[in-house]
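Incident log, support desk, overnight shift.

02:14 A customer reports that sequence design results differ from what the structure should imply. Their input is reproduced verbatim below. On-call engineer (initials T.W.) acknowledged and began investigating.
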């Protein structure tokens, strides 16, 4: 009998994406327009208009093989962030770049450092590749515990993932602590700074740090602030070309199609769309925080700088699975904590979105608090 190379490919955890509106509408007979989809961190305003125009113009080229390194997209990213295009690798979503990094820079059985909890893809992919996830537990209200993380770096893991802002809590790590991590890491450790949600922090992020640290890669996605989740576009960048070349060689040759390249290359300059999105998210983050402050069976975990937050379930009689289903009945889709973290039955990850969706969330939680 043919055997898989790594047992985790058969027995391991798989990533659980957020539910679609169609599922909830059909199951609970709720009109699509009334459903608040708050489980996938998608852009409330949809796709970048510049990207949509570029995709339409690129349709005539779908019969032609794309440039194998997504050169037009790399050049656009290089221009936008003032980096050498040859120091950029593009992927079908940031998740593909994560997979490439794990495969390229950690061997079988070698350690990969990450926070606990973290974006589940880090340890899911590590396990599927036969690598060894190593965890640093977060503190009170998901404090990133930088000192403990730096201590763990002394073991010289092959890769160290740092999400900023953190997923699933949204906690932000100041630049001074990012620098501390980079400086504490051995030259044998690749530091991977995952900035999928960086726009929502209203900071420039860490790309400008790259020339100072030759063992640093920054990851970004077009799925969030640019609104291209369904197009699947992400990238990794480093000032050290020697870190990018292996990823070019490892990736599937034509991993980026013509429409992905065109859409991403246009979206990266769509400042108007990004600024509109970020402004709404920041305003609604404060709005929903205020609206939830009076609840006694649920608590919004403070400190999120992302387009989502964690809701802690205070009432011991309510589990995350129960709350998840009760919210679905009321037309609200969130992320069950058990899908994203150990001991997650006390938490839900919930997106920040338009006011009408925040109001539906608050109404639903209030109804559950009074009646369940």
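02:41 Re-run completed on a clean worker. Output:
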């Amino acid at each position: 009998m043919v055997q898989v190379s790594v047992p985790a490919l058969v027995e391991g955890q798989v990533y659980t994406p957020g539910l679609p509106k169609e599922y909830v509408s059909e199951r609970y007979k709720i009109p699509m327009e009334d459903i608040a989809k708050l489980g996938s961190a998608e852009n409330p305003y949809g796709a970048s208009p510049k990207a949509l125009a570029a995709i339409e113009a690129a349709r005539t080229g779908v019969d032609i093989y794309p440039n194998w390194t997504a050169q037009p997209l790399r050049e656009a990213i290089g221009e936008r962030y003032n980096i050498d295009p040859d120091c950029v690798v593009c992927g079908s979503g940031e998740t593909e770049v994560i997979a490439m990094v794990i495969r390229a820079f950690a061997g079988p059985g070698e350690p990969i450092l990450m926070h606990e909890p973290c974006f589940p893809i880090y340890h899911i992919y590590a396990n599927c590749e036969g690598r060894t996830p190593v965890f640093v537990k977060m503190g009170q209200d998901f404090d990133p515990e930088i000192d403990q993380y730096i201590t763990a770096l002394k073991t010289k893991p092959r890769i160290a993932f740092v999400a900023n802002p953190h997923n699933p809590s949204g906690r932000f790590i100041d630049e001074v602590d990012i620098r501390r991590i980079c400086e504490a890491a051995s030259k044998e450790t690749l530091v991977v700074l995952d900035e999928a949600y960086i726009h929502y922090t209203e900071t420039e992020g860490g790309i400008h740090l790259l020339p100072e640290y030759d063992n640093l890669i920054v990851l970004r996605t077009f799925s969030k602030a640019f609104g291209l989740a369904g197009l699947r576009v992400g990238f990794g960048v480093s000032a050290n070309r020697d870190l990018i070349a292996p990823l070019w060689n490892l990736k599937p040759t034509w991993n980026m199609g013509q429409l992905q390249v065109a859409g991403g290359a246009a979206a990266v300059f769509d400042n108007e769309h990004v600024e509109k999105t970020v402004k709404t998210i920041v305003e609604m983050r404060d709005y929903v925080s205020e609206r939830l402050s009076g609840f006694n069976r649920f608590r919004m975990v403070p400190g999120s700088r992302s387009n989502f937050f964690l809701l802690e379930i205070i009432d011991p009689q309510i589990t995350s699975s129960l709350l998840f289903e009760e919210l679905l009945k009321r037309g609200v889709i969130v992320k069950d904590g058990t899908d994203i973290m150990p001991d997650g039955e006390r938490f839900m990850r919930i997106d920040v979105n338009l006011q009408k969706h925040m109001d539906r969330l608050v109404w639903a939680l209030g109804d559950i608090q009074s009646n369940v």
